[in-house]
């Protein structure tokens, strides 16, 4: 039993626990989450006049701190304790303070009972359990190493493989023979007939390059090398070829996991990549800020550019230019016939800043033209994805003139399509969630039936389970995306066990300790977003235009508000107008603080100004709310709201003009999976104040290069902003220091170069292990297919029938 509970039960505090439960019973709420539990315990301590030490450090206080949920039933309570990251245990405590551990099944039944969806006389509910499939693969032990899957897997599998030198040599030999580009053999050729030849030939080749001037281009000795059994791929100069061969030589003679990683990362394995991002408006101009269209589009475009650049640099170093081989990166998205002035109806669009990067748009099949000709919300997209994947496969193969080497899915819909494609093409699948909706919407699984009409979570969560389990590897932007923090559950963690009452019980939805999880944060486009102090990169015309737009331009169609004193310090925010982004929370915070209003103006770039111009329900509600708050707090003359869609370059400059005036950036989201705007603001030199709920907690080091805020506490948020502003007034250097540290933070930890380097290494190493350990995933994939055909597909069909009636 949990030590935390035992400590309470075996002490006098048992009476406090009993009383606390009685106090809870007196309340209406029967299902308490962590915040509710903490609040109730604070009330308990207050009511029973407990000292502060009891609240903070008693056994009960300790237990409460680690308790995630309490469900009150008639004669007992069910409590979920999370004593450490990624570990949750459920217990039943009865009226006599008897404690019993609960099985996952019991826990899910309790949750079903809570929503009156427990009908045992109708038989058991379908249980989804992925545990058996992870039993035969290695798992990480220490939660702090979750997200470092590659290092772990490489070490683990290397030690197994190296134990049998003959087998190891055979795997390596066969692996080296595998690679080709545009039909041309790479690395080794048929002259090297057996694994026994390998070591000798490597030494001969080394002797050869040792005699050649290190600067000699590979093309000058290519044919001699072929005679020795070696094809292109080892390097572009004699010295690079020598280095790579030396690593291989060491790997053959005295293998270890680091040498293996160094060698695999050097060799050409990835040539063609598909990035799948289906929903929303995917384009390079005029789309950001539209519903469902934000950071993911920015992320995928920047990633595509950076991957191409990185592959080009690698090919050059590998000496592949002699073969005329070029990388190809394709972003696969949907074609929207009624494209509302965007290029989303164009089949093929070159990605700016690339040589061979393309956006390939494939339309949904036309089931009901009223639906499929138009933008479709990400919550409604499910019926179209299977046929989309089939059509996209054909188009991709034609466009790429062959199979991709890697398919990267984005968000639930893109990940499902990536799964379908990777399964059919037999290539490596990588998953990127961006944001998992399950933890964004409270109780979204428990009340899924009530929410189904609007959100269709039954489809989305099933798709998530399918894609995340099928993926060869998962890339997350933060550690907490996987397993949360000490006091909060992670996004992936929320899939480990949950109920969809009457649909299914997930008893083990994902193995959090699996080495498939890898933490690789994104970067920021350094050509667009750069420090405001880099005068030489800035264009005067653009700066003047954006200054005017931000502070003075009168344009009622696009700008709301005329500032009384445009020179006050600007507080800036930019986001899509959806509920979770909580720009209304920021307006309320500003509205409630007279002092903030005296010292600052509030500048927002967000959505649209008129509700009638929007067809997104959340956006419309937020527009109304913003006007109502502006009126309620009489913010006229103190706020400007730009309902504009900025071009890419303008969106970079707007942060800089705010930084020129020593402004600050506030990101007040109720939850933010990562938060690219925070990176953009920081690299521009704006001190960031961002939500403590989600990714910003890892981006910002509180007090050092920015500040974390609790956006649900508007008074406290205003105090944090004011404290900073007051300090800046007292110490003119303070803003500067913070600004410089914010810039430094991004350059040292969040660049696309670091990101894509890692992604390519991951793909190669997972590819290598996929091949050489011949990991049999067929049983897992067959199980996943059953979920797809038996759960997902019939529900998608039902939704399609609804759409067909629109
Ligand atoms: N963005 C924009 N105009 C807007 C709103 C957002 O250009 O009106 C851009 C912003 O610069 C950032 C991205 O959209 O690059 C938003 O990414 P983030 O990760 O912050 O949030 P998301 O929208 O993905 O939830
Ligand atoms: C989706 C989100 O909600 C943001 O928090 C991320 O920054 C964005 O995707 C890019 O990953």
Can you characterise this structure?
By secondary structure, the chain is of the alpha/beta class. The strands form 5 sheets. An 8-stranded mixed beta sheet has the order 11-12-10-9-13-14-15-18, sandwiched between helices. Strands 19-22-21-20-23-24-25 form a 7-stranded mixed beta sheet, with helices on both faces. Strands 1-2-3-4-5 form a 5-stranded antiparallel beta sheet, sandwiched between helices. Helix 14 links the parallel strand 9 and strand 10 (328-335). Helix 12 (238-253) runs antiparallel to helix 13 (257-266). Bound molecules: uridine-5'-diphosphate and 1,5-anhydro-D-arabino-hex-1-enitol (LCN).
List keywords for this structure.
806 residues, alpha/beta, Nuclear Transport Factor 2, Chain: A, Four Helix Bundle (Hemerythrin (Met), subunit A), Rossmann fold, eight-stranded mixed β-sheet, seven-stranded mixed β-sheet, 32 helices, globular, binds uridine-5'-diphosphate, binds 1,5-anhydro-D-arabino-hex-1-enitol
